[in-house]
User: What shape does this take?
Amino acid sequence: MEEFAVHQHIPADQPGTRLVAIAGSMTIQHGAEIKAALLEAMDSAETLQLDLAEVTEIDLIGLQFICSAHRSAIAGNKRFSVMKTGNEVIAAAAHGAGFDRHSGCIQDTEHTCIWAGGGQ
Assistant: This one.
């Protein structure tokens, strides 16, 4: 089993940003920890960057956390981006769950939905 970790930090050159990096399994097993980290980051910064480069497994709960964080950012007039850096685990899970989109949800007026090509 891959080791799970979730880390947060403020990039030195971006004081209003909180970077949340998740490594290992982004699944229901770690849902409480992931949710707590995302809520804390959202409450403490104007910009949330989610780094998923080291995610080795993701289930529907993990995909829903990404959507929920994005929608929360929109509702709070904050910026949100996801750094997947070519992580095929994320792409395969999103495709398998039917998350591929041509456009984002109705709240996504800035066209930043990662499932529709937004984000990083």
